[in-house]
């Protein structure tokens, strides 16, 4: 499965990178009002799947505040999973760290 945040122009490339027959591309996040995504129908009829998710499937009005409260209370551990922080300009370095197993 390919996951990506909603950055204009990358949705189609992510779908095309998904494997024919069973590949899944998941767009994570919310686009600006009026933004559209497009692809050639061939990409879908050959078995690729396009999915979308905001807040990881959590209901924003009811569940996200609860999630934040649990994080702030220390019930949900998140910080321990962050090993590095990179600016977008250093994305290649970030992938090198990821592929080296250090991230």
Give the arrangement of secondary structure elements.
Layout: E1 2-5, H1 11-17, E2 24-28, H2 41-45, E3 49-53, H3 63-72, H4 91-100
Parallel strand pairs: 1-2, 2-3
Overview features:
103 residues; alpha/beta; Rossmann fold; 2 domains; 3-stranded parallel β-sheet; 31% helix; Alcohol dehydrogenase class-3; NAD; metal-binding; S-(hydroxymethyl)glutathione dehydrogenase [NAD(P)+] activity; zinc
Whole-Å distance between the termini? 19 Å
Order of helix and strand elements from N to C terminus: EHEHEHH
CATH-level-4 superfamily name of the largest domain: NAD(P)-binding Rossmann-like Domain
Tally of separate helices:
4
Q: How many domains make up the 3D coordinates?
A: 2
Spatial ordering of strands, largest sheet:
1-2-3
Classify the beta-strand content into a percent band: 5-15%
| Assembly state of the chains shown | single chain
Coarse morphology = extended
Mean pLDDT: 84
Low-confidence stretches: none
Which class of secondary structure composition applies to the elements?
A: alpha/beta
Organism: Parascaris equorum (Equine roundworm)
GO biological process, one term: formaldehyde catabolic process
GO molecular function, one term: zinc ion binding
GO cellular component, one term: cytosol
Short description:
With 103 residues, the protein is α/β, with parallel strands linked by helices. Helix content is 31%, strand content 14%. InterPro entries: GroES-like_sf, NAD(P)-bd_dom_sf.
Question: How is this structure best described in words?
Answer:
The protein has 103 residues and is of the alpha/beta class. The chain has 2 domains: 1-56, NAD(P)-binding Rossmann-like Domain (Rossmann fold), CATH 3.40.50; 58-103, no CATH class. Helix content is 31%, strand content 14%. The chain is built from 4 helices and 3 strands; from the N terminus they run E-H-E-H-E-H-H. The protein has helices at 11-17, 41-45, 63-72, 91-100; strands at residues 2-5, 24-28, 49-53. The protein has a 3-stranded parallel beta sheet with strand order 1-2-3, with helices on one face. The protein is extended. The two termini are 19 Å apart. It comes from Parascaris equorum (Equine roundworm). This is Alcohol dehydrogenase class-3.
